[in-house]
Write a structure and sequence with these properties.
alpha+beta, Pnp Oxidase, Chain A, 4 helices, 19% helix, NADH-dep_flavin_reductase, EC 1.-.-.-, Flavin reductase family protein
Length: 170
């Protein structure tokens, strides 16, 4: 039998991306949550997915809107992840954004974003997998992405990038 704390500890040794999933409520106010499970699903048609806990207060808003934007947080945005991960917090306080073509918040300073309509939802244990059809996507910056690894935040910088930077003299 696999026990929860051991399961969480071992899987914490797998680095994950940190992605803010955003939408707007019926009142057009921005809403969001943070996930570490964003993934590409299919190229044809273009589909992506993320997992969300069944107790999420944001999931019903995504369902009602039928759309979401996945914002890949940058290495300097751990404060955004912490805010989006705090229940009851005003997640968009001090977070600047602009609406996508679908009306979803695209956060300032992210590495990239993917704007989607909800294609499908699948119940999996204590989570739901939300699959989105990609409608628009964009790389926003050359910043390094924020990662979560061993219960801590960090960013990714490849050793190849360090070598090239040294050769170029940056």
């Amino acid at each position: 039998m696999v026990e929860g704390p051991h399961f969480r500890n071992v899987l914490g040794h797998f680095p994950t991306s940190v992605v803010a999933i955003t939408t707007t409520g019926e009142d057009q106010r921005p809403q969001g949550l943070v996930v570490g499970t964003f993934a590409s699903v299919s190229l044809d048609p273009p589909l992506v997915s993320f997992l969300v806990d069944r107790s999420s207060s944001t999931l019903p808003l995504i369902r009602a809107a039928g759309r979401f934007c996945a914002n890949a947080l940058a290495g300097d945005q751990d404060h955004v992840s912490r805010r989006f991960g705090t229940k009851g917090a005003d997640r968009f306080a001090e977070v600047t954004w602009r609406p996508s073509a679908l009306g979803n918040p695209v956060l300032d300073g992210v590495v990239a974003w993917v704007d989607c309509t909800v294609e499908k939802e699948v119940e999996l244990g204590d989570h739901f997998m939300v699959v989105g059809r990609v409608r628009e996507l964009q790389v926003e910056s050359v910043k390094t992405p924020l990662l979560f690894f061993r219960s801590s935040y960090g960013d990714y910088l490849s050793t190849a990038t360090l070598v090239v930077d040294r050769l170029v003299g940056w």
